[in-house]
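re: that chain from earlier
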Amino acid sequence: MGNKENLVSHAYTVIFGLTADPIHKGHEQAIINGVQYLREKGFDIENFILIPVFQPNLIAGKKSPYSDFNKRYEMCELVATKLSSQLSCNIVVSNIEKRIAEKTGENNYSLNTLKELNLQNVLFMVSADHFQGRWPKFRKWFGWQEILKFSGLLINQRPGHKINKAFIDRLSDINSEVHIVEKGTSVDTSSTVIRNSFYHSEMDLCLSSEIIKYIKSNGLYLNK
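^ sequence. v structure.
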């Protein structure tokens, strides 16, 4: 499962889909951990692509983004620019989900995004909470088994989320390139908490200075 000696040596493209409403230090740390993990394994990273979701396929308890796509995209660009310099890694932002939705007029799914990108040696970065419990949420993703035909997985471990090992083994039978990023630093926050308390709490621990400035200058989350 993700053993270097079993893999062909090549450079990966990592894809990280996120709502980014707003993008916060938890997201940033996940990117940092992913880059460090792959480098420690001796793998190169060709590109690290942040893909803001255009119109999320909502699950129970979730709401549509509060900020419009362009603002979420611009916040991702600020973080990509900073981390590209910090990590000496080519971190970029793609509006591919917006382009797909505008072309088809339909809700988009991660499988469609992977097909449209049509890239080789891809790792799709996903949070560990989609792989926990007896019935992991990843099983509810549209075309979840087919996703593994187009991409490996880079699973970002988070505190309090115990990964279902039997399910991971099943995924590895479909695609051997399933990696679990463990023991990395974590930032315990969420976009929901940030939106609800942005103008009432100090946000330095949750958001980078660039994002704090952007939110204030654009008057985001004022009605939360």
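The longest helix spans residues 69-87.
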